[in-house]
Amino acid sequence: MLKSCYQKKWIEAGCDEAGRGCLAGPVFAAAVILPKNYKNKILNDSKQLSETKRKLLRVEIERDAIAFSIGIVNNNEIDKINILNASFLAMHRAIDSLSTTPELLLIDGNRFKAYNKIPHECIVKGDGKFLSIAAASILAKTYRDDFMEEAHIKNPQYDWKTNKGYPTKKHRNSIQEHGTTHLHRLTFRLLPEQLEINFNTKEE
Fold first, then answer.
1. Is the pLDDT of residue 62 over 60?
2. Contact between residue 102 and residue 130 where contact means Cβ atoms under 8 Å apart
3. Are 68 and 112 within one domain?
4. DSSP state letter for 25
5. What whole-number distance in Å separates Cα of residue 25 and Cα of residue 64?
């Protein structure tokens, strides 16, 4: 079972993001403050859970959390500042929107850009170690999935309902055939190297 908190002295917010490796769509981040002695036997890293369990847990997290918030950085911003900085910015936006101010941030991963002088701890694979980070991973993932499923309605050829913007073979084949959309990250390698010449020729 995951730990309920890193320490008991300060108000903690777990933070995580979703969508860093995608070819299209925003990066989403979430910040979640849970009660100090919170328990949930099912709550875990979002990648270890089925879509059905993630949706059920999202309801529980939003019901039980002291505070939670979502931060979004769109694909145009990602192209301007790069995906690493965009991930930090998305987390900053989520933290900034919390109704309760945290005194310690628990960040999934090994890097973070300090936010408003709030102390932080970077925890590698933290979404499998602490409940608040796992909760943030689930909110970020489910909110982003909802966005990409909505975007799929107007762009069904890219199969975003299934791949959520990640670089699957079908997604890349659709980029090769149809070109890019306003949601694609143009600074990413959208096609395998051997197809780039054909793709660039088509755009001309």
1. yes
2. no
3. yes
4. S
5. 29
**Which residues share a beta bridge with 167?**
none
Q: How many domains does the chain have?
A: 2
Q: Are 113 and 87 in contact, with CB atoms under 8 Å apart?
A: no
Work out the end-to-end distance of the chain between its first and last CA atoms, rounded to an integer number of angstroms: 55
User: Is residue 104 domain-shared with residue 183, that is, in the same domain?
Assistant: no
Asked if residue 180 and residue 142 are part of one domain, the reply reads no
SS3 letters for 98-137? Answer: CCCCCCEEEEECCCCCCECCECEEEECCHHHCEHHHHHHH
Range of the domain at 172: 155-203
Residues 179 and 123 in one domain: no
pTM: 0.92
Are residues 115 and 194 located together in one domain of the fold?
A: no
pLDDT in tens, 151-203: 999 999 999 999 999 999 999 999 999 999 999 999 999 997 645 544 443 34
Query: b vs e for 160-196, b when ≥16 Cβ sit within 10 Å of the residue's Cβ?
Result: beebbbebeeebbebbbeeebbebbbeebebbeeeee
Same domain, residue pair 164 and 199: yes
Percent over 90 (pLDDT), the chain:
89
Question: 186 with 145, same domain?
Answer: no
On whether both 146 and 166 belong to a single domain, the answer is no
Contact 8, 102 (CB under 8 A): no
Whole-number CA gyration radius for the chain: 18
